[in-house]
Amino acid sequence: MTIQRDGGKVVVHGAILVDNVVELTQQGFTLLDDDHLVVDLSEVTEVDSSAVSMLLEWLRMAQRRDQQLHFKNLPENLASLVQLYGVSDFIPIDTGIRK
Asked: What local confidence, expressed as pLDDT, does residue 36 receive?
């Protein structure tokens, strides 16, 4: 699992699980340092419910910093968890063709 910055995009690679979510969340805090960023989740291989918590924590941090943060290419299982927990209205997701 890694997170890489590519201009205005942050790409998350690998699994987001309870075993590594704290480390990933902290990595994200250091990379999410621009006024407007997109987090690309197309390279995420596995998730559990802790992934939803990570997205919400990143959004709280962005709001405190007066930043705009959007997510794209959510894996289907993560999108299902977002719906299941009723937080889809709080998580800005860019829809469209996966890139």
From this structure: 86
Low-confidence ranges of the chain (pLDDT < 70): 96-99
Rounded Cα–Cα distance for residues 13 and 41 (Å): 7
Model confidence, pTM: 0.90
Nearest-angstrom CA–CA distance, 40 and 12: 6
DSSP state of 9: E
Kindly state the helix (H) or strand (E) to which residue 56 belongs, with its residue range: helix 50-64
In angstroms, the CA 22 to CA 28 distance is 10
Assigned token pair, 21? 């979510």
What are the Cα distances from residue 99, in Å, to 41, 84, 96? 10, 25, 9
